[in-house]
Design brief:
There is one protein chain. The chain is of the alpha/beta class. The protein has 2 domains: 6-91 and 161-232, P-loop containing nucleotide triphosphate hydrolases (Rossmann fold, 3-Layer(aba) Sandwich); 246-482, P-loop containing nucleotide triphosphate hydrolases (Rossmann fold, 3-Layer(aba) Sandwich), CATH 3.40.50. The protein has 13 helices and 19 strands. A 6-stranded mixed sheet has the order 5-6-7-3-8-9, with helices on both faces. A 6-stranded mixed sheet has the order 15-16-17-12-18-19, with helices on both faces. The protein has a 4-stranded antiparallel sheet with strand order 11-10-13-14, covered by helices on one side. Strand 6, helix 6 (180-196) and strand 7 (199-203) form a beta-alpha-beta unit. The longest helix is centred in the middle third of the chain and has 17 residues, at 180-196. The chain is globular, with a radius of gyration of 23 Å.
């Protein structure tokens, strides 16, 4: 009889009155490498955390790690987002802090973080160079943690996990924020880890997975359900077609014909040049796709537009027909644009209920601190109904499945009917059905005259309304072109 690596019986987990795992039985045998997928909110991440001892559960969970292996006899969970602290051990960061020169130095550098990790886990520090090179991360060694984009944070998590090589490695949404080159490199290296004796559990619906994955399952009614292949995973229900709320069918009042104009933009942090000689014009009604490999400068470029980057004043930037620094306030700018980004999601108020999160978009705040008028309350109600969130309105935003959280943030973004929508990888971590749902709503919004800047890696998972594309490479413009038709190319 073959002894399992993991043997689970009657595992149960619930949050408040919501049962997530219900008397779950499962085992991982030697040579098995699992993909756990399926519907958002089914309990996939909870199971992953439970395997690593990060959730309080009932039932029995036994591990039979190899005593002869040189690999650490432990289970490591790599979360969807990287949780780092400042130098005092606090996580109380705010959204714009990433771009604030006076406060960026509040966190460790990548180098210092990895040095600390090597001592904590008794790892040979010289070996980390291999993993830094794997993800083209050598140039980030002296970067503050708070300066990293979401994709760069994912790379840092993966570097730590691959360096440690635990006997059981659980990765939640392994491809979140990664461009195609990084995804391919990750898959090749995961196959090498398997050959070295690591057992994998990937929590994802992505079909671009390493060849070593040979077991598939989803969670249904709190139980593990084995599947013959990834193609048998349950899909999200198709979205019910509803008309947009009437106030969103009105074209936003915008006098300026050019919403964004940049000339020879440069952004640097000390010796590091993040953007160089960028010139770009976005006209009213245009729908732009912004692409580039991780670290190419996309997020920094967007921060100059949305008013979060102080170096906007040192550059030739015109927004909504006015030069930055000519007397307009940051609130004048924010009132006319709406943004969804992984960073906004990351730093959002953890105590906000769903309806409060949506309503906060009226005031461009990260939480709701004001009373709403009757008209504003009606807009919140209409958006809750449109996005089928009425039943969830009094739940904490963070308690919703990821797909619903993104819809809440989109509702927050559009409640003021802005002229310009900036959607920075809005479907990061969502499955194909959720992505299609999200992008269908974006297409509907843009049919009423919205101007759009959309960041996305997968060409096959984009809104159909896009008509222009700008691609960055190492902080400079690589190409600017019209989109004639959707292609299958992927960045």
């Amino acid at each position: 009889m073959i002894n399992p690596v993991v043997h689970i019986t009657h595992l149960s987990l619930q949050y408040a009155h919501h049962v997530v795992l219900d008397q779950l039985n499962w085992q991982i045998l030697p040579g098995e490498h699992w993909l756990i997928g399926g519907k958002s909110g089914s309990g996939k991440s909870s199971l992953g955390k439970a395997l690593a001892g990060l959730e309080k559960t009932s039932g029995d969970m036994q591990f039979f790690f190899s005593e002869s292996s040189s690999l650490p006899a432990r289970a490591l969970y790599v979360s969807n987002w990287y949780q780092f602290t400042n130098l005092e051990g606090d996580r109380n960061f705010y959204y714009q802090q990433r771009y604030n020169k006076q406060q960026r130095n509040d966190t460790l550098t990548v180098y210092a973080e990895l040095m600390h990790y090597s001592k904590e886990e008794n790892l040979a520090f010289e070996e980390v160079e291999k993993y830094l090179s794997l993800f083209d991360f050598i140039d980030f060694k002296n970067t503050q943690l708070i300066e990293l984009s979401s994709g760069e944070h994912k790379k840092l998590q993966l570097i730590r996990a691959l360096w440690l090589k635990p006997q059981l490695l659980i990765i939640d949404e392994p491809y979140t924020g990664l461009d195609k080159a990084s995804r391919d490199k990750l898959n090749r290296f995961l196959e090498e880890l398997v050959e070295a004796g690591v057992h994998l559990v990937l929590i994802t619906n992505d079909e671009n997975i390493p060849r070593c994955i040979n077991r598939f399952a989803e969670i249904e009614n709190g139980q593990i359900k084995r599947l013959p292949s990834i193609h048998h995973l349950s899909k999200e229900e198709m979205r019910k077609q509803k008309p947009l709320p009437y106030f969103l069918q009105q074209e936003a009042k915008e006098a300026a014909d050019v919403l964004v104009h940049m000339e020879n933009i440069h952004v640097r942090y000390g010796e590091k040049e993040v953007l160089k000689n960028i010139s770009w014009t976005v006209r009213k009604g245009e729908k732009w796709l912004l692409q580039g490999h991780n670290g190419s400068g996309k997020s920094t470029l967007l921060s100059l537009i949305n008013g979060d980057h102080p170096q906007a004043y040192a550059n030739e930037i015109h927004l909504f027909g006015k030069k930055r620094g000519s007397g307009e306030s940051i609130w004048d700018i924010k009132a006319r644009l709406g943004i969804v980004s992984p960073e906004l999601h990351w730093y959002f108020d953890k105590t906000a209920k769903v309806w409060q999160a949506i309503a906060s978009g009226i005031y461009d705040s990260i939480g709701l601190f004001r009373q709403l008028s009757y008209e504003q309350q009606q807009k919140v109600t209409q958006l809750l109904d449109f996005f089928e969130l009425t039943a969830d309105k009094d739940r904490l935003l963070t308690s919703l499945p990821l797909g619903k959280q993104r819809l809440v943030l989109l509702a927050r973004t559009i409640i003021k009917n802005p002229s310009l929508l900036i959607l920075d990888e809005p479907c990061q971590g969502l499955d194909h059905a959720q992505t299609e749902h999200f992008n269908t709503v974006v297409d509907e919004l843009c049919s009423f005259g919205k101007t759009l800047i959309y960041v996305g890696h997968y060409e096959t998972q984009l809104p159909s309304c896009l008509d222009n594309k700008i691609v960055l490479e190492k902080g400079a413009v690589k190409t600017i072109q019209k989109i004639v038709e959707q292609t299958t190319a992927i960045l």
